[in-house]
Amino acid sequence: MYTVGLDVHYRTSTLCILGEDGRLVKTRTIRGSWKKLLAAVEEIPRPFQITYEASCGYGHLHDVLIRVARRVVVAHPGRLRLIYLAKRKSDRVDAGKLAKLLYIDQVPTVHVPDSSVRAWRAMIEYRRRLLDKRTRCKNAIRSLLRSFGVESPRGQRLWTKKGRTWLSERELPDPLSRGQWRMLLEELDHFNRQVKEATGTLDQVAQRHPGVGLLKTIPGIGPRTAEAVVAYVDQPDRFHRSRQVGSYFGLTPSQDDSADVRRTGHITKNGPSTVRKLLVEAAWQAIRHSETFKRNFERIAAGKPERRKIALVAIANRLARVMAAMLRTGEVWREAA
Question: Of 208, 229, 250, which one is at a domain's C-terminal end?
Fold first, then answer.
């Protein structure tokens, strides 16, 4: 069976073909779109296995290649130290190294979900970006008010209907600032509509997925956190140990062991940042609503204010592991005795 390494780019790609004995058969550069690349791949004698790095569009490329290749392996770009730490680096060299790693079956792989899960993840990320944009808009509105010494009424929340009415009634003294004020309010309304539409779309998906309802049985866990965990865990059985789930979401501390000395540092922050943020936010709610998580938090914090953040991240890690276990077994949440 032939072994093929691909270095894929949008306009130029390089493939390296190794024979059954691991020796180089051919290296070829394809200039053009992915259609030309796929046409070149179909010319490779079958059977063959193929590998490439995960990047934008990796899922679509996997779906197409799996139709012609016996085996498709998507490599984790952050773990390909052989390529990124090399002194000599080019597309041809990278394709060759990928092919050799696949030949000896040492490619660090990534999970490739199906197209529906990829679309679900994309909508979750899109909603998160909309929230970030809306937050920046709100901050700009507050900043403009402060620049003219305008204070909002006490107890008045600016982002409610009454608050929005109060904002629309403000008149700023400077003509240029009035134009900026008008555009900021229009931008806020635009983002509110988009967030509402994205939320409604996600709600429809969440209502049909049993895993989201299962995770919502955990005290303090809402639909946004539940759907994000379900979408990114995807197949719980792919994690052989519960600790791998925390590591996947970047909630485990970095570790440096040498001889008898063991050092732990900040969390790795690997994996999807959106889910990690949601889990940390949900950890506060879990502590408030669940005696189990509250006891764990207090035990880790040990009454020291400087350890509260550490304890919070530990609870977020615990939440991720519990959620994956629930998805694997189908059991609802139960408080520890």
Answer: 208
